Amino acid sequence: MGRPIGSVNREKPFNDALRIALRSNPLRLRRIAEKLAEKAEEGDLAAIRELADRLDGKPVQVVDRRDAAIDELSDAELHLIAMGGLPRSQQPEMLLIPPPSKDKAEP
């Protein structure tokens, strides 16, 4: 469980120190990014994952609730099921192979 809303523990001293260090030398961040890209290019999996997470965002975790009893589902989950899933505008993009054209003769 995360930090409660309204928590007073909002200070992030390490984050603040990093921002100060990077702002004091603007080329430092560029050099760090270059090193990360070089490591990824060399095949370093941790660097590749880091770049992918920064560019595409972290992968979404899918939770399969098909085996849950109906009384264990939240109102939001039940509403989503009743609506037939996420609206098309909120569904993740997927690359699909288009169906074969009906104009061509099938073998």
Helix and strand element order: HHHH
Number of helices: 4
Which oligomeric form is depicted? single chain
Uncertain stretches of 5 or more adjacent residues:
none
Supply the key terms.
mainly alpha, 107 residues, extended
Describe this structure in words.
This protein is 46% helix and 0% strand. The protein is mainly α. It has a domain of 43 residues. Helix 2 crosses helix 3. The longest helix is centred in the first third of the chain and has 16 residues. The chain starts with 12 loop residues before the first helix and ends in a 24-residue tail after the last helix.
What's the short story on this structure?
The chain has 107 residues and is mainly α. Helix content is 46%, strand content 0%.
Give the SSE layout:
Elements: H1 13-24, H2 26-41, H3 45-56, H4 75-83
Helix pairs in contact: 2-3
